[in-house]
Amino acid sequence: MSTVRADDRDGGVRLLTLDRPPANALDERLLTDLATALEVTAADDAVRAVVLTGAGPFFSGGFDLSRRLRDLYRDSHLRLFTLPKPTVAMVAGHAIAGGLVLVLACDYRLGLDADYRVGLNEVAIGASYPKVAFEIVRLRLSHARASELLLGAALYPASQAVRLGVVDELVPADRLETTVLRRAVRLGAFPREAFAHAKAALVDEAVARVEAETEEEAARTAAVWTAPESRAARAAQREKLGHRR
Questions:
Q1: Chain Cα centroid distance, residue 141
Q2: What pTM value is reported for the model?
Q3: Is 217 a catalytic residue?
């Protein structure tokens, strides 16, 4: 069974739902399933727009990036980031670390007005940002908000998501899905060539920087994960989570 469910809605909207309980963490299987779903979606002329969301209380809780997953992470995120169709994130639960990067990879982002957390806490747990993640964050957020999220490494209540630029609007639960689908239908109704051209112009420079990354640069990024203080920070985080359970 795929960890990414596809459901076609009216108006040519395809709803893609991350479904890997309990936190929709990004592992090799989910990233592969996401890349496949996006490839199929890109080739389907009946699909005019895409909504990305997560099942359960998490949009996605992110993951620990291993060397084995580096290329898959880059390719799946680039596929979402550059999809020549409108993409709308429906954030109805925690979007943390790599999970928030997936949200930011979407063109338009709407969030549930509820009690959950958003943030980029990689620095706090001794993790580094893959080049594609950094470029997505840098393009979507203002410099001030990107600095606050990247360097402050805090988790914020969803009520702060609009201020941070993470979502464009917070919507009550009884209107969230209807509002998201309506926005997706509107974007999907634009002439597809015009939308694809404008979107490519917006993201092309960021994509070029990702594709220009050298092996040496990638190795320096990966080395952050194995530094003694980084390992200690993640061990402390695991212990903290264990105590919570």
A1: 13
A2: 0.91
A3: no
